[in-house]
Write a structure and sequence with these properties.
The protein is mainly α. The protein contains twelve helices and no strands. Helices cover 74% and strands 0% of the residues. Helix 2 packs across helix 12, helix 3 runs parallel beside helix 6 and helix 7 packs across helix 8. Pfam families: BPD_transp_1 (PF00528).
Length: 280
């Protein structure tokens, strides 16, 4: 009995050691970027200064970033594209997943399988035909074109994830509501949708992360500086012969901050969301 407890304690210690090591490795780059962004230029590569803590704090890199570059333009473009992509993906994927779980029609099972297949296609295979379509529509080098492109490959994942949640909601709940006089649509919004909030949050976080970090489509579909998003715009800070590392670190901090805050607020729903998808 004692040997069993000893082995159990050893496994627990090893597990928590691994967790702590993983957390440190994960947050170290962001912490180092934050500290480097606060260091004066003379201390960034100085061996005499502390590796981690700056001896003096300065906001010079942030002032140069916000006042001397198009960073705020990139930030605005990324925010607009993310918001409207989210506004399209969530209602469409929720209604589509609901329809696939509640209505019988020819080819339904095949369509459900094809949803995940379309998401598994490498994005590099799709950007050329998508670029041709957007060119004909006159949406190249525009925020609307990026919203259209991001919606096209965020929708399949959103529908696939929400399918598992709607399958887990008993049909009897909405049937009881419709017996009491509710319409199909009101039963969906008042009865079914509150049961899948965790799934909606998980899809929302996924869409935000994809739109915020996506580089390939933004690079191909935008040409003017006024339309560039954060990943493409920040890449211009790295020049051939000179790199302003202080400004780069400041841009990393400001770019990562919204996603970090988002994870902090929705992590509980996010864990439930992916756990529910696995069960489904």
């Amino acid at each position: 009995m004692r040997s069993y407890r000893t082995r159990k304690d050893v496994r627990k210690v090893l597990m928590w050691t691994g967790v702590v090591f993983f957390v440190i490795v994960s947050i170290f780059p962001l912490v180092e970027a934050l500290l480097s962004s606060l260091k004066p230029p003379s201390q960034l590569f100085s061996r005499s200064s502390s590796i981690f803590l700056p001896s003096s704090v300065t906001l010079l890199h942030y002032r140069e970033l916000l006042g001397g570059t198009r960073f705020l333009t990139y930030y605005f473009n990324t925010t607009v594209v993310t918001f409207f992509t989210l506004a399209l993906v969530i209602p469409i994927s929720a209604l589509a997943a609901y329809g696939l779980t509640r209505f019988e029609f020819p080819g339904r099972d095949l369509y459900r399988r094809l949803i995940l297949f379309t998401y598994m296609l490498p994005p590099i295979l799709l950007f050329l035909p998508l670029h041709a379509v957007l060119t004909r529509l006159g949406l190249v080098n525009s925020r609307a074109g990026l919203i259209f492109a991001y919606t096209s490959f965020c929708l399949p994942f959103g529908m696939w994830l929400l399918l598992a949640f709607f399958v887990g909601v008993p049909v009897s709940l909405e049937e009881a509501a419709m017996v009491d006089g509710a319409t199909r649509l009101s039963a969906f919004f008042r009865i079914v949708l509150p049961q899948v909030v965790s799934g909606v949050v998980a899809v929302s976080v996924f869409v935000c992360v994809v739109c915020w970090n996506e580089y390939l489509y933004a690079l191909v579909l935008t040409s003017s500086a006024e339309m560039k998003t954060l990943p493409v715009g920040l890449a211009t800070f790295i020049r051939m012969y000179t790199i302003d590392w202080g400004m780069v670190m400041a841009s990393v901090v400001l770019t990562s901050a919204p996603l970090v805050v988002l994870y902090m607020f929705v992590q509980r729903h996010l864990l439930k969301g992916f756990a529910g998808a696995v069960k489904g």
